[in-house]
Every structure is written in C-alpha cells, then in structure tokens.
C-alpha cells in the first residue's frame, strides 16, 4: 500500500474483526503457516518429500502454537526439523508475524474485496520476513490465499432470521486514483443469536444496481428465512431491499433517524436534546407507549419547530417496527 489512505480496506477489516473474527483469523493463520513452511524448505534445502543433493535434514512434523490477533487467538502449526547438525531450526517468521498481525490482516481484507494477485501474495509473505520468493512459491502463496478467501466469500449462508444492512463512504484507490467508495455490508443473526458478517462489497455508490447485486449474491449463496431487516432509508437500498427481500419486515435504523432529526432541528438547543427525546420514545416498554410518547414529542414542536414536528411524525414510526420482536432482541436491532 502506498501513502495514500485506503480507508475502505480499514473499514472492511474492522467489520470482519468485529463480526467475522473466526474467518479472517483462519486466513491469517494459513498465510502464517505457509511462510514458516517456505522458511523450513529454505533451511533444509528441499521441499517436502523432495530429494536434492544438498539437502540437510528432513521435515519432522509440526508443533501447535497460539498467536494473539485483533480477531482473537489462533492456533498455527509451527514446522519442525530433524536429522541435521548445527543450530536447530526456528522460523524467524514466527516473531516477525507476531509483529505484523494488523498489516497482514489489512492485506487479507484488501484481497477479500479486490481479489488475490501475485503481487499481493508476495507482499503478505514479505510481512512475515520472507523475501526473494521463486515464481513457484509466489504462485503457491497466491493459490492458498485465493482458495481460502474464495471459500470464505462463497460459503453457504442458510437461514438468517435478522439482517442488518449498512453502507459507509470511505476512501479507496481505484485504478491508481483515490476516490470515495461505498462499503456495503450485511450482518446476519441466526438461530444461535450470534452476529456474523455475511458479506462485504465495495461499490462506487449506493445506487440500486449495486445494492441489488449485493443482496442477490447473498440469496445465491443460500440466504433464506429473513424475517426482519434493519437499514437506513437510502433510495437505492430501499428499492433493492423491496425487490430482493420484500417479504421481510423493515426497521429503519434508529441511529440514522436520530442523526437525520438533528439535521432537521432549527436551532442549537433542539439539536442538543432531540437525540435524548427520541431515545425516550424508543426505550418505551411497549409499542403503544412508544406511539404515545412520539405523539407528545410531535405536539411539543408544533408551535416552535413545525417542520421538525412534521418530519418526526412522518419518519419516526418507521423506527418502531422493532417493538414486534421479543423484548430481549430489540436493543440489538435498532
């Protein structure tokens, strides 16, 4: 990566660490193991099962070692050797890899959204201290990373009860130019009530065509059983959601509603308190009480901020669908 900030990749990495830690940690571990295997081959002067005149010693299995990463602790298989004199084999990439965890994970996140190239695979190996790779070693690294990421990106999804859709604009390099890009994400909650990243896509905008392609890719991977969707009310997302997942109940994201309400507030005093006033509505114990609290809030602004009152009346009810869910699920789906 060059000095120009690619915040889209950073954003994807944070999503994957928060809601898909097992998957990104697994790819990191496989890359780590490959770097150590290449280092062992160089130490022995031969690859696994390869016979060469200058070979010294032989591969002698692996020893498991646990490595802490931002996505949790992973187990890696550290290669061992036997049958040689002199200093015992110890992969220097083991220590280098520990210091380069985030850099490698950033590279993995970039490959997750852009695909794997030999240049990127070689760069990942360099993060582990493995330089001057042969063309076959570079191809081997690229193939391993591509296989791991492809299995992750295309894994079957199955039944997902709740779906959270979001987009954020970040900087991304595209054909050498840094420009704004929309990072589209889908987080699912299944029967085990755990949040998982179902997919992440970087698009040029939030236009319907991009959201529809993204949602259809999830359905093609077996996404089914979606009963409840949380998202903002962006026109492109709204149209795509209705076309692809129109049977699900929709909840307008309360965070986005609160932020939009601030923009409609006519003065600083209202802007400072409107968020707390909306939280009082959303924290009501029942839908009926929430609707009553909203009606009172709207009435309180009829005289002093009529445009805000109208906006609240027309938009905030879209954030009350969550009251149809069991109470213990509501806070996670606002």
UniProtKB/TrEMBL annotation:
GO BP of this protein: DNA transposition
Entry keyword annotation includes DNA-binding: yes
Xref: Pfam families: Transposase_mut
Cross-referenced PANTHER family: TRANSPOSASE FOR INSERTION SEQUENCE ELEMENT IS1081 (PTHR33217:SF7)
Record family assignment: Belongs to the transposase mutator family.
Function: Required for the transposition of the insertion element.
Name of protein: Mutator family transposase
GO molecular function: DNA binding; transposase activity
Domain of life: Bacteria
Keyword Protein transport: no
Residue ranges of coiled coil: none
Keywords of this entry: DNA recombination, DNA-binding, Transposable element, Transposition
């Amino acid at each position: 990566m060059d000095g120009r900030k690619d915040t889209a990749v950073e954003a994807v990495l944070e999503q994957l660490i928060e809601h898909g830690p097992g998957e990104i940690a697994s790819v990191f571990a496989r890359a780590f193991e490959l770097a150590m295997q290449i280092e062992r081959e160089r130490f022995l002067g031969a690859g696994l099962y390869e016979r060469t005149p200058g070979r010294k010693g032989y591969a002698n299995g692996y020893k498991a070692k646990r490595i802490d990463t931002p996505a949790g602790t992973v187990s890696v298989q550290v290669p061992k050797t036997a049958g040689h004199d002199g200093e015992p084999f110890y992969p220097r990439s083991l220590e280098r890899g520990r210091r380069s965890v985030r850099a490698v994970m950033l590279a993995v996140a970039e490959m997750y959204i852009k695909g794997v190239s030999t240049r990127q695979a070689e760069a990942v190996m360099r993060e582990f201290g493995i330089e001057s790779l042969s063309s076959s070693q570079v191809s081997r690294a690229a193939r391993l990373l591509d296989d791991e990421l492809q299995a992750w990106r295309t894994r079957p999804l199955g039944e997902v009860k709740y779906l959270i859709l979001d987009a954020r604009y970040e900087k991304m390099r595209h054909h050498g130019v840094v420009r704004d890009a929309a990072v589209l994400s889908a987080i699912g909650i299944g029967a085990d009530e755990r949040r998982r990243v179902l997919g992440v896509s970087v698009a040029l905008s939030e236009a319907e065509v991009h959201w529809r392609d993204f949602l259809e890719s999830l359905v093609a991977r077996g996404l089914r059983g979606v009963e409840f969707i949380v998202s903002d009310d962006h026109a492109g997302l709204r149209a795509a959601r209705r076309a692809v997942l129109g049977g699900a109940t929709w909840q307008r994201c309360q965070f986005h509603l609160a932020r939009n309400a601030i923009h409609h507030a006519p003065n600083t005093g209202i802007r400072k308190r409107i968020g707390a006033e909306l939280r009082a509505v959303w924290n009501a114990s029942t839908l009926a009480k929430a609707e009553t609290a909203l009606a009172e809030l709207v009435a309180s602004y009829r005289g002093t901020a009529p445009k805000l009152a109208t906006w609240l009346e027309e938009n905030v009810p879209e954030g009350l669908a969550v009251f149809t869910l069991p109470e213990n699920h509501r806070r996670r789906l606002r």
